[in-house]
């Protein structure tokens, strides 16, 4: 196989066993000895993580702790090349990682690789967190989600503060010269209660998934 100008010598057995996509791609060069197949949509690092998984599999999990970045690389290669077993393994490993990706990163990964179950918890996390969205985060997830998260967070803070007219705190840095009220700032910096988490989840469902629920 050839990826980003780098050649890899891989046993056909592993590629054909676990991926119908690769089985079909390899069938097009049947009989052409030594002819590399060029793979697109996957980086060298991602492919190397896939090879590690195919050759070593479960043994690696016992021998050492795998960093979440490597599982993300495996997810990228497995998704691009249709290795379903490796993809599911990477998703489970990321779910169970002691240090999971930040909410923004989970949103990006979820949309890139079609893992919709990661979206709702990531939105809820951003809705109830104390820190506002940073400009680089907003640029990464796009205007549509920024607007919806702004709406969700302001509704969450309004519900949390009560209907007494206090201004909610936007998830983006405020364009106004005055700081948020001390009470609002105090509330968003506390550890959210179970009731607050449920409220954030309800608001996220209303803002992002109302069409799916109705």
UniProtKB/TrEMBL annotation:
Protein name, entry field: BTB domain-containing protein
Domain BTB stretches: 1-63
Pfam families noted in UniProt: BTB
InterPro entries: BTB/POZ_dom, SKP1/BTB/POZ_sf
Superkingdom of this protein's organism: Eukaryota
Organismal lineage: Eukaryota, Fungi, Dikarya, Basidiomycota, Agaricomycotina
